[in-house]
């Protein structure tokens, strides 16, 4: 290849690596946001043993920062026009690429299992809510917070607590549903305890919480998986161009 054409290809490699470095840093930041779990819904996925969305986020934290560092190295190798350095860059990038593939696929497939429908979330809620175990306390706290903040009750609605057997019903038969399903005053006192107890719709949250839970976990999945896939496409194109550059180096 002519010297001028090789120089142009070098600048393309440098530019693509600069963009990929920025994308990797963004992936690193987004994955940290998911791993921190700002919506505090990890117990709902953790209790099932299907917390792969968060496992994928931890992998993406590593791959995002690794992409950033390796792309910086790739820029250095391209400017040096060194075949050995470019070879090291290509090998390391390919290894990181495989790890990020695992992260994105893991998060995407786990999301469908966890919130493909409300059955699993509902089953966990009925089994663990009110249970005097570590997992039970975590699930209870999570559901109480969600129901009070989102103003919802159960997975699909208050009827979940009536139609199915639950730990709550066995331990506290006084109420058909948790007190967190009851509407409250501005002082956080129950608006009408007796009305909520008998199920007056004016004193009870009637919508289910599943749509909220599904939307949050979908956001997490989009952040780890679909943004991860977009970074992978960019990295794949960068690797192809870098391989061409490596082949034409003397």
Automatic annotation (TrEMBL):
<feature type="transmembrane region" description="Helical">
    <location>
        <begin position="7"/>
        <end position="35"/>
    </location>
</feature>
<keyword id="KW-0812">Transmembrane</keyword>
<dbReference type="InterPro" id="IPR000301">
    <property type="entry name" value="Tetraspanin_animals"/>
</dbReference>
<dbReference type="InterPro" id="IPR008952">
    <property type="entry name" value="Tetraspanin_EC2_sf"/>
</dbReference>
<dbReference type="Pfam" id="PF00335">
    <property type="entry name" value="Tetraspanin"/>
</dbReference>
<dbReference type="GO" id="GO:0005886">
    <property type="term" value="C:plasma membrane"/>
</dbReference>
<feature type="transmembrane region" description="Helical">
    <location>
        <begin position="55"/>
        <end position="79"/>
    </location>
</feature>
<dbReference type="InterPro" id="IPR018499">
    <property type="entry name" value="Tetraspanin/Peripherin"/>
</dbReference>
<protein>
    <recommendedName>
        <fullName>Tetraspanin</fullName>
    </recommendedName>
</protein>
<feature type="transmembrane region" description="Helical">
    <location>
        <begin position="86"/>
        <end position="108"/>
    </location>
</feature>
<feature type="transmembrane region" description="Helical">
    <location>
        <begin position="226"/>
        <end position="248"/>
    </location>
</feature>
<keyword id="KW-1133">Transmembrane helix</keyword>
<comment type="similarity">
    <text>Belongs to the tetraspanin (TM4SF) family.</text>
</comment>
<keyword id="KW-0472">Membrane</keyword>
């Amino acid at each position: 290849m002519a010297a001028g054409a090789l120089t142009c290809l070098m600048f393309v490699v440098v530019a693509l690596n600069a963009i990929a470095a920025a994308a990797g840093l963004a992936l690193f930041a987004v994955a940290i946001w998911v791993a921190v779990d700002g919506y505090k819904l990890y117990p709902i996925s953790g209790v099932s043993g299907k917390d792969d969305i968060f496992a994928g986020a931890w992998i993406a934290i590593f791959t995002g920062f690794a992409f950033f560092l390796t792309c910086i190295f790739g820029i250095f190798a391209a400017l040096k026009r060194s075949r050995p350095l470019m070879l090291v860059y290509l090998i390391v990038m390919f290894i990181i690429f495989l790890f990020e593939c695992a992260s994105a696929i893991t998060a995407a497939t786990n999301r469908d299992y966890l919130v493909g429908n409300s059955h699993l979330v509902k089953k966990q809620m009925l089994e663990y809510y009110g249970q005097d175990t570590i997992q039970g306390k975590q699930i209870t706290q999570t559901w109480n917070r969600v129901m009070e903040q989102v103003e919802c009750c159960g997975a699909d609605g208050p009827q979940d607590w009536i139609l199915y057997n639950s730990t709550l019903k066995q331990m506290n038969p006084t109420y058909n549903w948790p007190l967190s399903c009851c509407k409250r005053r501005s002082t956080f006192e129950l608006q009408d305890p007796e009305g909520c107890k008998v199920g007056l719709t004016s004193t009870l949250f009637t919508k289910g919480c599943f749509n909220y839970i599904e939307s949050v976990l979908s956001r997490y999945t989009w952040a780890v998986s679909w943004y991860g896939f977009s970074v992978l496409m960019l990295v794949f194109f960068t690797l192809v161009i870098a391989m061409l550059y490596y082949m034409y180096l003397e």
